[in-house]
Write a structure and sequence with these properties.
The protein has eleven helices and 15 strands. The strands form three sheets. The protein has a seven-stranded mixed β-sheet with strand order 4-10-9-8-7-5-6, with helices on both faces. A four-stranded mixed β-sheet has the order 1-2-3-13. The longest helix has 38 residues. The radius of gyration is 21 Å and the shape is globular.
Length: 441
């Protein structure tokens, strides 16, 4: 696709074909869906999305960090077609096929650290989190779980019990899983501490001096669930030392460390796993989203010494579906080859975001690694009051100019484009974003 082919937008959006689909959707689908803005996708290529009326957009959100290889990557499409032509399903819990075993081996060998790994395949990140909860309790024979404020781990009951992102995700759905405890995530921008080391110490005190002294004994805790980079809670990059401190605490008390890399894993940060930046090996790693380039697949990757449950303890009818496994294997090929470029383009995008911060007073903080970058908007840099009402306005202006964005947290833009974008996509998209942000200054 020529660089001159996008963005290209004719107002009003959506066009007539899109309007018809919106009306159909509004009549028949659940009102629980959010529907951020009226994008009605018709196709795409690389980091370009085309709607059903022929409008073209640069994608900075990748379907919530899912479309890791972009749209219609030839290697992924070929793998899906080849597998679909052979067979669509045989339950991997009960029977065998090569793609299932090959993907399990690939993920086990790619897992962070040096320990031998074993893998359970699922349909989604939420299902993988549910499996991690069960495995942690089964292996340790302990009931309690710890998660962080701002965390998003999924929408089923165990995962939702760990989630602490937005009240509407909990409202009227209780009671939740018992013995789940939440502590503040290590956010250096919002911390009262004077430096990053102080922010780490602040979080660790919340666990040891508050939680362990007042609410739950450490030897009752099965696992700590942590996103190495907080996703829905605001794309928060914790300071160096945070994951290392959690690892040391878990080792001290015999607690499992579970890294939720559903959003930050599979090359998103420029390494295969975000926890690799800290040199930390979790006991369990959970992945999904970008693993299948859009096909539904997730995985639980655990130390072999931790994955001690017996045959029949856990499984899935569709988890590790043959077509999804084929997509995941092809995706991993593309992502592994792209990692150096992800780091380079991430630095380019981060530099553009920081330059925008210097010119736009409402940009309070810019943070991230690779192509997982958060741009937080504030009304005033001194008070750091979130400028949440600006997020929707900027998102819609950007949409009308050919850039797809999504917010997270209270007032942060998540920049999570397909990992296969190029310099044109970065520069053109950041130009549009800055134009839209400056109109709020």
């Amino acid at each position: 696709m020529s660089a001159r082919g996008y963005p290209r937008v004719s107002l009003p959006l959506p066009g007539p074909k899109g309007q018809a689909i919106l009306a159909q959707d509004a009549r028949f689908t659940s009102p629980s869906y959010i529907k951020e803005y009226p994008l009605v996708i018709g196709g795409g290529q690389g980091a370009m999305v085309e709607d059903v009326d022929g409008n073209r957009f640069i994608d900075f959100m990748a379907g919530i960090a899912v479309s890791s290889t972009g749209y219609n990557h030839p290697a992924v499409v070929a793998a899906v077609r080849e597998q679909a032509g052979r067979f669509l399903h045989i339950c991997g819990t009960d029977f065998y096929y090569q793609g299932f075993a090959a993907l399990a081996e690939r993920l086990a060998r790619l897992g962070p650290g040096t320990s031998e790994k074993r893998v359970l395949l699922t349909n989604s990140g939420t299902e993988a989190i549910e499996g991690a909860i069960k495995l942690a309790r089964y292996h340790t024979r302990r009931p309690a779980l710890i998660a962080f404020h701002g965390a998003f781990h999924g929408r089923s009951y165990g995962a939702m019990s760990l989630t602490s992102s937005k009240v509407k995700q909990h409202q009227h759905f209780g009671p939740f899983l018992p013995d789940v405890h939440h502590v503040p995530y290590c956010n250096p921008y919002r911390s009262a501490a004077a430096d990053p080391a102080g922010a780490v110490a602040e979080t660790m005190r919340a666990i040891e001096a508050d939680l362990f002294q007042r609410h739950v004994a450490p030897d009752d805790v099965a696992a700590i669930f942590v996103e190495p980079i907080l996703g829905e809670g605001g794309y928060v990059l914790p300071p160096d030392g945070f994951l290392q401190a959690l690892r040391a605490l878990c080792d001290r008390y015999g607690i499992l460390l579970v890294a939720d890399e559903v959003q930050c894993g599979v090359g998103r940060t420029g390494k295969m796993w975000a926890c690799e930046w800290a040199g930390v090996e979790p006991d369990v790693l959970v992945t999904a989203k970008g693993l299948g380039s859009g096909l539904p697949i997730g995985a639980l990757v655990a130390r072999a010494s931790v994955m001690t449950w017996k045959a029949g303890s856990h499984g899935s009818t569709f988890g590790g579906n043959p077509v999804a496994c084929a997509a995941a294997l092809a995706t991993l090929d593309v992502v592994e080859a792209a990692l150096p470029r992800v780091r380079a383009l991430g630095e380019r995008m981060l530099a553009r975001a920081r330059a925008m911060q210097e010119r736009c007073r409402i940009v309070g903080d810019v943070r991230g690694r690779g192509l997982m970058i958060g741009v937080e908007l504030v009304k005033d840099r001194a008070s750091k009051e979130p400028f949440d009402e600006a997020i929707g306005r900027i998102t819609h202006r950007a949409f009308e100019r050919g850039l797809l964005l999504l917010g997270c947290g209270r007032s942060t833009f998540r920049l999570s484009p397909p990992l296969v974008l190029d310099e044109y996509d970065v520069d053109t998209g950041m130009d549009i974003l800055e134009q839209c942000v400056r109109e709020e200054c």
